Amino acid sequence: MCNRIWSYSSMIAYSLKHHTSLYIVDFDEYISCFENLNLIPNVHIVTNKHIKKLLKFLSRVYSKFFPRYHFDYFERYIGVTNCIGWDYRSELSLLSYYRDVVCQLFTPKMKYVNRCSEFISSHKVDKILVGVHIRRRDYVNHLNGIYYYDNSVYLNKMIAIRDAIYQSTNQDVTFIICSDESVVLSDFDAVECHQMKDATGVEDLYTLSLCDYLIGPPSTFSMWASFYGKVPLCIIRSKSQEIALNLFKVICAVDIFADGEHFEHTLRN
User: Fold this and answer.
1) For a FRET experiment, which of 28, 193, 213, 227 has its CA 20 to 30 Å from that of 132?
2) Predicted confidence (pLDDT) per residue in 161-215, tens digit
3) What are the structural domains of the chain?
């Protein structure tokens, strides 16, 4: 979901800047999660199967005969551009300029917003909330499992964050755990933590965006939560990584922090 949101976001920013129409053909399974997908008149989430079929056919034709041309060439001479999402990034300033509109477009439906807000409110009283994104399933094999961490690794990071925040602010910390698999909360008894019961993916995503800090392995999921909620994120780069508050920074684009630092993937354990 968030891979697609990130890739569409750059295109949407470009479309807004240049007043062009954008047709998105691969978001069907997530349409029901979001409130404002029709917010921007020239951005169209295509659901009609006949139109989708036509656009995908044109996409294959463009990819075969006009690979890797710059947008401006097509707009000036042809009038239509075929975009392969993950390969395209608009300039950072463009995405930053249109950030609020893009975030509004991908606001979850109110039933999810309300449930997440109530859950967060019930745990936030006089405490700092740290969202913990535990990514498991596909990370067993992703990059040979380098970012697949067991619960003891997460717990050690959580204890370090709790102690650092308390020393800095004299405030207690509560952890909100979000994961793509079942989590045994008793493994985290050394800290105060909670998990929303039967949360959907979009509820986990929005819940993370409401926290005060975020931590997790490299993932477009937690990066979007940071971008959307302007929440400082600390990426767990390795099992042995030391934790400090100065490592928490807001994300402004995929793998890019607001202070200009670029995240570089580790290639070995």
Assistant:
1) 28
2) 999 999 999 999 999 999 998 899 999 999 999 999 999 999 999 999 999 999 9
3) 2-105 (no CATH), 110-257 (3.40.50.11350)
d(CA 221, CA 43): 23
Residue owning tokens 């920013």: 13
Closest CA to 132 of 239, 254, 242, 221: 221
Are 250 and 258 in contact by the 8 Å Cβ rule? The answer is yes
- The residues, ordered by sequence, that sit 6+ positions from 16 with a Cβ below 8 Å of its Cβ are 40, 42, 98, 101
- The answer to whether 232 and 224 are in contact (CB under 8 A) is no
Reading the block at residue 91, the tokens are 């300039």
Q: Which of 20, 84, 236 is nearest to 146 (CA)?
A: 236
CA atoms within 13 Å, Cβ hemisphere of 140: 5
Q: If we measure between CA atoms, which residue out of 101, 57, 104, 106 comes closest to residue 82? A: 57
Place of tokens 């062009």: 20
Sequence-distant (6+) residues with CB within 8 A of 47 are 28, 31
Q: pTM, whole model, 2 decimals?
A: 0.89
- Expressed in angstroms, the distance from the first to the final Cα of the chain is 27
The 3-state DSSP class for residue 146 equals: coil
Helix axis angle for 220-229 and 2-18, nearest 10°, is 50
